[in-house]
Amino acid sequence: MDMTDRFQQSPYRRQRNDVEAGTGRSSNYGEGSSSGPFEIYRTKDASVHRLRRWRQAALVLNASRRFRYTLDLKKEEEKKQAIRKIRAHAQVIRAAFLFQEAGQKEKGIPRAPTTSTGDYGTSQEELASITKDPDSSALERRGGARVADILKTNTEKGIPGDDDDLLKRKNAFGSNTYPRKKGRSFWNFVWDACQDTTLIILIIAAAASLGLGIKSEGIKKGWYDGGSIALAVLIVIVFTAISDYKQSLQFQNLNEEKQNIHLEVVRGGRRLGVSIFDIVVGDVVPLKIGDQVPADGILISGHSLAIDESSMTGESKIVQKGPKAPFLMSGCKVADGYGTMLVTSVGINTEWGLLMASISEDTGEETPLQVRLNGVATFIGFVGLSVAVVVLIVLLARYFSGHSKNPDGSVQFKAGKTKFSTAIDGFIKIFTVAVTIVVVAVPEGLPLAVTLTLAYSMRKMMADKALVRRLSACETMGSATTICSDKTGTLTLNEMTVVEAYIGGKKTEPPDNESVLPPLVKSLIMEGVAQNTTGSVFVPEGGGAAEVSGSPTEKAILQWGVNLGMNFDAIRSNCSIIHVFPFNSEKKRGGIALKLPDAKVHIHWKGAAEIVLASCTRYIDMDGNFIPMDEDKVTLFKEDIEDMGARSLRCIAIAYRSYEIKNVPTDDEELAHWEIPENDLVLLAIVGLKDPCRSGVKDAVQLCTKAGVKVRMVTGDNLQTARAIALECGILGSDADATEPNVIEGKVFRALSEVERQEFADKISVMGRSSPNDKLLLVQALRKKGHVVAVTGDGTNDAPALHEADIGLAMGIQGTEVAKESSDIIILDDNFASVVKVVRWGRSVYANIQKFIQFQLTVNVAALVINVVAAISSGEVPLNAVQLLWVNLIMDTLGALALATEPPTDHLMHRTPVGRREPLITNIMWRNLLIQAIYQVTVLLVLNFGGESILNLKGYSHERATKIKNTFIFNTFVLCQIFNEFNARKPDEYNVFRGVTKNYLFVGIVGLEIVLQVIIVMFLGKFMSTVRLSWKLWLVSIAIALVSWPLAIIGKLIPVPETPLSEYFKRIWQSILPQRRPSRDSINRRQDGAD
């Protein structure tokens, strides 16, 4: 079967006018252009007004349960107010502290002596007060650099880090955790389940029926009707609470995982990766751009270090940190530069800890599918409510007019003769049936099935190395039409090694052959490699291999330097740093100015080869001579770079220049804003770094292509390297594809007009030498073309693109905290194959919900039609209140558990992406559910009106025969639903049993339903108003239910139109209604929505 056929047979087949279909896209793509309250296709940036609007429009029986996993708008506002108060409180405390200090100084009152804590010469209060005083002179009064000595910390090597040392520090200064609000207990969920309006009405009705029954029939028999309803309601409440409680535990575990940030600390001289919760006072923590400050502390050393303190102060102001402003607050982000800090306060002793302990961490979040399902539930609910009212009116009219009869044939109500209590009891029974119809008709569990399948999917996705931060991303990923992926670490292994080197104008074989290097070149290369880096090299004291840490690029170059004989610590201590220009993804290079022992100044640059080469005017040859860079030599170097790029090597150039010390600014303010000269450089080396493609990435890319998801590579590497990797990964099919506009450079795309960018965006497969802003422009252009865009990112500057995308995917290993916080899903292993697994899970969420809808609507339609027709024609309903509650339990809680937790299959990746504007109930689903519902309704109504003769019950009394007939109808109806659960598993496949044995939960639930049904019919007759059935009638019930399987296969042979049924109804409705010209106000409202 070819791909076209697969798409044609999919139940999720697209409309031809779907703007997200991947073809024929419209540029009029706007998130807010929908008019219905339930048409929110992107909850990521939805306004409070729109969120409130759909809540008000929904028909809800149990608000506390229905809206549990949606954003609590009231709590969200309270959270913002709490944050503002805590920030103001912190400012007041700091001001009071300064006022007190100033007063004591004015009066000459000596500062109170420090009280030591255990083995340390200071107290936690003393350390906490350091960051409350922004005046660094106060730090000097407390000992300045002596803080590290007091905390028994070496500013270079950190704390010893053994278990005893860590335990002492935690006992003395606390751990880096804060008190968290306890999760909701099981009884909270029981209470929530009790707040269902219809269940409350049923309990009241049951209580009244119980009282009247005991009064008229005595306690032995009188409790059956009321007691059975009350017990059935209790069972529904317990099952609902257990299901909800298990979901909450899964979300709680995932929230804890989200907060577990991993970072590096220096302990015993080596860099170690630890959890943020394991940070202790005295730790030395390296900081780089994008990191979160893990605790309060003071700066040991830093270069161009800028901190975003908006999370604490509420002001979006970047604060420069240095000797005059060394205080760092927990929870803030590193905006630029790098440095190391000494931790002085952790956990609840920091303002961030107080803030996090005071606010509710998670106030929920609705997803687009959840909102749409509320719309479906509301529509079905209103239909069910109308049906219930009709049934109530008909039954009451028949009852009080004397047309309702008892099983023995006697009239139930005779005006003026029937007792008042008997009449009331009859009314309550009728009213109870009507209310129970509402319970079954209003699919309260439908929107909650989304959270059930999301909770299940998120837990399973953790095993597939994907941590979901936003629920909506999980389902939106199923609609993704394109993935803009980074190259390094995502498509490649991120394990770089230097495999080629051009030094002195010639290729060096092997690249770390130090014997051929002139002494001057060798010393300058080692100086540049050791100093112009954010990585480090640790050599164990007892000998052994050097341990290199840092980013993969830094590690590769440092390892190359070590192989050349570089002594990292000696070179670092030999020079002093004047100023640093941290690596910048826009300029794609980083520089450093050094003061040598002989007062000379060297400036070193390292970065993208062709960019650094463009700034070079000379190079040093193998004899150590400085040779001017003529055109021929520049061309030769460029050819070498292109040759390495064509072999998928990342090219890095290392250059330097000397500088007059008199030209270096002496004023601290001027030095902080000094731009390091980047002209007139001397080229030292060009190195080629190999980063192999991940195994399986080509298969993953092909799987995406087959699934209708286009993979685009967006990388900072040059075009040659990007092209080579794209061909290797299968993003480009052949060399013929590797031409513009399929392959484009970032600056070329950037220079296009907005309209041109939209035209080019669809065609782009590879973008090389791109900046984070280029990635953002590409995402915007693709979204305007109607794409649902997923973007991967790891750097701080990727944050805007991650936020703008429909699904932002941050890298768990190489990603910065800023990138992770802007993302929707974190890929824990940085592997593109894991991104594809997320697509599968996203499609699985949507498919599972549609399975559940098909199953639930079949039950709804059948139950409603049977009861309505029976009520109107005979004045009796074959399914009583308790039986309907059991059906509701199968349909809502157990049905959702069985169908909403189906694992994803390969079949899901043989379809086009799920359009976010497609109808939830497709034509294929309508066909399936109508065939099953019509079959069930026909069979059961025939049994209802002619069951006594068909089942050969003439030998029984009328009362007994009626009870057997009604029990048989109830049993057959339930078995039909259980058998139909298998049909719902595969809406578009003939073999509905494929993979069923792998889904233990489904098999277990179906088994439980069958066992419970047998117990209900055979042993709970008085409770359920049933009688025992003979084995022959059981076989007939099973045979009738079994017909649903071959019927489903025959039904799937019936073709369905491509245009959704809702479109036909809409056209009919529009043709009936008179055409009205839209008013200016309505036009303005639509434009406002689009904006």
TrEMBL record:
Pfam families registered for this protein in UniProt: CaATP_NAI, Cation_ATPase, Cation_ATPase_C, Cation_ATPase_N, E1-E2_ATPase
Catalytic activity: Ca(2+)(in) + ATP + H2O = Ca(2+)(out) + ADP + phosphate + H(+)
Assigned GO CC terms: endomembrane system; plasma membrane
Location (main, coarse): membrane
Keyword Ribonucleoprotein tagged: no
InterPro entries: ATPase_P-typ_cation-transptr_C (IPR006068), ATPase_P-typ_cation-transptr_N (IPR004014), ATPase_P-typ_cyto_dom_N (IPR023299), ATPase_P-typ_P_site (IPR018303), ATPase_P-typ_TM_dom_sf (IPR023298), ATPase_P-typ_transduc_dom_A_sf (IPR008250), ATPase_P-type_domA (IPR059000), Ca_ATPase_N_dom (IPR024750)
Residues covered by the Cation-transporting P-type ATPase N-terminal domain: 138-214
Keywords on record: ATP-binding, Calcium, Calcium transport, Calmodulin-binding, Ion transport, Magnesium, Membrane, Metal-binding, Nucleotide-binding, Translocase, Transmembrane, Transmembrane helix, Transport
Localization: Endomembrane system; Membrane
Span list, region Disordered: 1-39, 104-126
Bilayer-spanning residue ranges: 189-210, 222-242, 376-400, 430-456, 852-872, 924-946, 1000-1021, 1033-1054
Ranges of biased composition (kind: Polar residues): 1-12, 24-36, 113-126
E.C. code: 7.2.2.10
Membrane topology: Multi-pass membrane protein
GO molecular function: ATP binding; ATP hydrolysis activity; calmodulin binding; metal ion binding; P-type calcium transporter activity
Family classification: Belongs to the cation transport ATPase (P-type) (TC 3.A.3) family. Type IIB subfamily.
Entries under PANTHER family matching the protein: CALCIUM-TRANSPORTING ATPASE, CATION TRANSPORTING ATPASE
Protein's job: Catalyzes the hydrolysis of ATP coupled with the transport of calcium.
Protein name per the record: Calcium-transporting ATPase
Organism encoding this protein: Actinidia chinensis var. chinensis
